[in-house]
Amino acid sequence: MRIAELRVVFRNVIDYYSQNCLSTENDGVSMKVRKRLGLATLALFLVVAGFVYLPSCKTAPGGCSESGPQVSDHFDGVRYFNPRVTRESQGPSGQVPSRGPSWWVWHWIFRSDWPEWPKETDSKPGPAPAARVPEGSLSVTPVGHSTFLIQMDGANILTDPIWSERCSPFPWIGPKRYREPGIRFEDLPPIDVVLISHNHYDHLDVPTLKRLAKRGTLRSVVPLGNLDLVRSTGIAAVDELDWWQTIRLKQGITITFVPAHHFSSRSLWDRNKTLWGGFVISGPSGNVYYSGDTGYGPHFREIARRFSPIRVALLPIAPFRPAKTDEKTQGYRSIVHMGPKEAVMAHLDLNPQMSIAAHFRVFRLGMEGFDDAEKALAISLKEHDLAPDAFVAPVLGRAISPPSALSASSRPAYQEKPCAGPRLFDVPSAAHVAARQVGP
What we know:
Blueprint: H1 3-21, H2 31-52, H3 101-110, E1 138-144, E2 147-152, E3 155-159, E4 193-195, H4 206-214, E5 219-223, H5 227-231, E6 237-241, E7 246-250, E8 253-258, E9 278-283, E10 286-290, H6 299-307, E11 310-316, H7 327-336, H8 340-350, E12 354-358, H9 372-383, E13 391-392, E14 436-437
Parallel strand pairs: 3-4, 4-5, 5-6, 7-14, 10-11, 11-12, 12-13
Antiparallel strand pairs: 1-2, 2-3, 7-8, 8-9, 9-10
């Protein structure tokens, strides 16, 4: 099917959806049924369009080796995977539960027990951030979802930026925004680097990256396999990293890509063809850990071992609480996402000066209610005898100055490793201690 023919089909689908599925005529068919039938029709079109139109995200060689990524404990030569998945995260048969992309699409359309989320009409963006903070200073401003403006030691860093109204390949369908960004896009200071944790649409938002490129953002750090996609947005300098690799942002500031328990996909056929992970930014003001999307696992303890003391950790607290508590669904969720209980466990493993909650109350991606994540976080902190300010659910747009670590390190505990099949818990040799220089 050619693109021109696909557009004709698309136009016909939209006409059918508008005339038949959104009709208010009283013919015995409820509006809920109409909408569900309409969504099913649109989803069928998206499935067809996905095979014809959406770009494939392949595993790209990146900056490690001209021959591409080598087999390691998290890459089998074709796809990436989560190493050391715990027995508690497995299904009753002892195998890791797996759901195909099509299952999740149809499950999302036909389930009828989605919680109602209110549209926040009184939320307003915060004040314009400072242009820079001096060396030795750290400020973290939550923008919403997993987007944070990290200002430290004279550098401005954005994590997984998304200012779009929907996290979707299309602007008219998909999870919509329920809270406005905490910073107006026009108020952003100059951004030195954008950190992308993985390629899901709520974390790698192409329209936002194009806007950032137009306003002068020239650098990004991405997981293996995402170089071409991010470069296509107009960001010229893109570094692809494997787990435990480090680049130097500027004098005294390094960025290390670290493991996470998650997965990747942007279409129906590219699942786990690109890597995922988190970041540790290290400078004179201390170590900042941004986890990206992740389930709970032993990687938190290893990150703490290598980067302690961590001044602030940015951790997701949703989605969680599946509608049905069957063992397979619970196990799958625990592998790739954390709820508040798992996030507090990660906080205890990492032992940061403070943690800041992410990935909640912006896009409805799970079965929790609008305020459930915040309430469950408060309960879990109390159960572990932790002060409320040890792990905060932030106000969007309000800058946070984390408490200073007693002996904050300005360097990571190790430096970049070559792409020669790195293992999750390897300690690099003395021959691999030189970090790469990226940019000035």
